[in-house]
Amino acid sequence: MKFTITRSTFLKTLNDVARAISTKTTIPILTGLKIVLTDTGLVLTGSDADISIESRINVADENNDLQIESIGEIVLPARFFSEIVKRLPEDTMTLEVKDNFQTVITSGASEFTINGLDANNYPRLPEITADEALTVPADVLRQLINQTVIAVSNQESRPILTGVHFTIMGNELVAVATDSHRLAQRTLTLPSASTTNYDIIIPGKSLTELSRMLSDDVEKIEIRIAENQVLFVFGQTAFYSRLLEGNYPDTSRLIPTSSNTQVEFDAPTLLASIQRASLLSHESSNNVVRLELNITDQKATIYGNSPDVGNVEEVLSFNKLTGDDLEISFNPDYMKDALQGFGQTAIEADFTAPLRPFTLVPTEDKEKFIQLITPVRTF
């Protein structure tokens, strides 16, 4: 096997695929990068058994400047190989596999020889034969992931909560994540109705990596779902993820249907205030800020306190405040994560009682996006 290629093109594809390669794997060959060269192009594959990424460089695309001398396949140690490619001196590089899987990489006056492995021993990617594919705008999917993945659990004691629960019925997709302290739910109207209903749980780690790969030049993403795998296809890349097994808890009953106090904020303004209040709360062992809403005086005040450093008090600007007086404490980091998901919009915060979960929704399309946060008992 031998080919020459523009180094920047190869490196971009290599970096994408390397997202799936882990040094901590029970299958040694998965620490490697699989390279397959055919007459039509080059295919790079990386996998950690949970996530697999396959990306293609077509010989027909002149921008790739791929010149094929002989076809073949090899698995190379990913960490060393990517470091070598990054540091090669010239704009082009040549890779040649010789006897006993010895691989020579040359660029200008530089030549590296590394030991490869037989590609036949590399695990096969799952075959997903789902007849129906869902097509979603890439920017919408990226936003949905970023708005929900913040609420997945990091605790392996309840593995089901480390994923985002997707339910697809007809032309509606609902994504929910919770770590039992907070919840994020986003509803999406699909461009085309699905004839099959799906109920799947995708690991949060997989979705985070997928979101990072969806650059602005990716317009649409195709989703195919099989029994224990989901496949996302965009551009020349196929992104596979295993699905979590089990039943996701019924989260619909956690969301309050009524409230006693409502306040409307501009999300960026409130976010800035929470960031200031948390400067001191982070120095305290319990990391809590307190919000006080006074209906009579039409006043909203936030307090942050650290016994060792001092305290902060700030009167918040808001658009509207109605209902009953309220004093509630919460984790400011949960609030910051939630507010960042709303971007530049105005939001409505709905409270029922000091120790009951409260919700944040955009003032427009309230049913499309909801964040729920459990308050902290401070007495």
Automatic annotation (TrEMBL):
Gene Ontology MF terms: 3'-5' exonuclease activity; DNA binding; DNA-directed DNA polymerase activity
Gene3D superfamilies, A to Z: 3.70.10.10, DNA Polymerase III, subunit A, domain 2
GO biological process: DNA strand elongation involved in DNA replication
Keyword DNA-binding annotated: yes
Assigned GO CC terms: cytoplasm; DNA polymerase III complex
Domain DNA polymerase III beta sliding clamp N-terminal: 1-126
Entry-linked SMART domains: POL3Bc
Residues covered by the DNA polymerase III beta sliding clamp central domain: 136-250
Keywords: Cytoplasm, DNA replication, DNA-binding, DNA-directed DNA polymerase, Nucleotidyltransferase, Transferase
Purpose: Confers DNA tethering and processivity to DNA polymerases and other proteins. Acts as a clamp, forming a ring around DNA (a reaction catalyzed by the clamp-loading complex) which diffuses in an ATP-independent manner freely and bidirectionally along dsDNA. Initially characterized for its ability to contact the catalytic subunit of DNA polymerase III (Pol III), a complex, multichain enzyme responsible for most of the replicative synthesis in bacteria; Pol III exhibits 3'-5' exonuclease proofreading activity.
Subunit structure: Forms a ring-shaped head-to-tail homodimer around DNA.
Recorded family membership: Belongs to the beta sliding clamp family.
Name this protein carries in UniProt: Beta sliding clamp
The organism of origin for this protein: Lacticaseibacillus chiayiensis
